[in-house]
TrEMBL record:
Pfam families for this protein: MPAB_Lcp_cat
Region feature (Disordered): 259-291
Annotated InterPro entries: MPAB, MPAB/Lcp_cat_dom
UniProt lineage: Bacteria, Bacillati, Cyanobacteriota, Cyanophyceae, Leptolyngbyales
Cleavable signal peptide: none
Protein name per its UniProtKB record: DUF2236 domain-containing protein
Residue span, ER-bound oxygenase mpaB/mpaB'/Rubber oxygenase catalytic domain: 50-229
């Protein structure tokens, strides 16, 4: 079936040697919308850790410039997925990340957890709502891809296997998810950003819908009110229905990375030199190659 021609191509590739190409096909062709949504949930999950939310609250970026912070994060991830971490653009965005992170005291454990969410949240989302789940080749390729990115970010003690890193992800959440005021502050700012994408009259209806994507442990860590059970069920049903419909459509012929979309922060397009907090841009751009 033509719908599975990309999957057939992926199965001809090696998840260790060819993980960059496999991840490019997944993010650009097979699951572009789903992976973006899963990474939004991954972002929300990291704010449930008080040590992470406290740092983000202190920087003020999520409160002062939430749309730019959102777009810059999404564009950074999309640049790496689209071009590969060893391309000129991939190396540059990783350099910029390392420069920004170097200004803050961030524990290696927190770095490891955030990295793990980029692997396992898309897997879990697609298991629930995708037009198909990730294949074994795709899961392994995602692991090796983000492991390589983590190494280039100087993250230490990255687990050697997919299963071991997944255990780390689950155990870290069990140990570190708990309520903190900074969780709520950063969560509210991010939630308000998402609500701003909708007309004013619709926002009271959208807010509980956002909460429907958060599990009970996340709701408790934020101090958010649990949404009605029927709303959770209705949204889950709608997403599963969407997945079934997509399964009957032909494969995407043109890629749809986040880099290719219109961005509220950059209505006229963007350059890598614009990514990052405004107060850091001068130092970030020293030595940057012209585009």
């Amino acid at each position: 079936m033509k719908r599975y021609q990309n999957l057939h191509q992926i199965h001809q590739l090696d998840p260790i040697q060819d993980h960059q190409e496999i991840c490019r096909l997944m993010a650009g062709y097979e699951f572009p919308w789903d992976i973006n949504r899963a990474l939004e949930i991954a972002l929300f999950r990291t704010f449930c850790v008080p040590s992470i939310s406290a740092l983000l609250d202190k920087t003020g970026e999520f409160h002062q410039r939430p749309q730019k912070r959102y777009d810059d994060t999404a564009l950074t991830v999309a640049e790496i997925l689209k071009w590969g971490y060893d391309s000129d653009r991939g190396q540059e965005v990783i350099r910029r990340m390392n420069h920004m992170h170097g200004h803050f005291q961030i524990s290696n454990a927190d770095f490891l957890y955030v990295l793990s969410t980029f692997i396992y949240e898309p897997v879990r989302w697609l298991d629930r709502f995708g037009w198909r789940p990730m294949s074994e080749n795709e899961r392994l390729a995602s692991f090796y891809f983000w492991q390589a990115v983590g190494q280039r970010m100087q993250i230490q003690n990255i687990p050697d296997t997919y299963e071991a890193f997944e255990r780390y992800n689950v155990e870290y959440e069990q140990q570190h998810f708990r309520y903190a005021q900074t969780n709520r502050l950063v969560g509210d700012s991010t939630q308000n950003l998402m609500l701003s994408w909708f007309p004013c009259w619709l926002r009271p209806l959208v807010r509980p819908s956002v909460h429907s994507f958060l599990d009970d442990r996340m709701l408790e860590a934020y101090g958010f009110t649990a949404p009605p059970a029927f709303l959770r069920q209705a949204i889950a049903y709608s997403l599963r229905l969407r997945g079934r419909v997509l399964g009957w459509l032909p494969p995407r012929k043109q890629p749809k990375f986040y880099t290719d979309a219109d961005h509220r922060s950059y209505p006229n397009g963007y350059q890598l030199t614009q990514l990052g907090p405004p107060r850091m841009l001068e130092s970030l751009n020293q030595g940057t190659k012209p585009e």
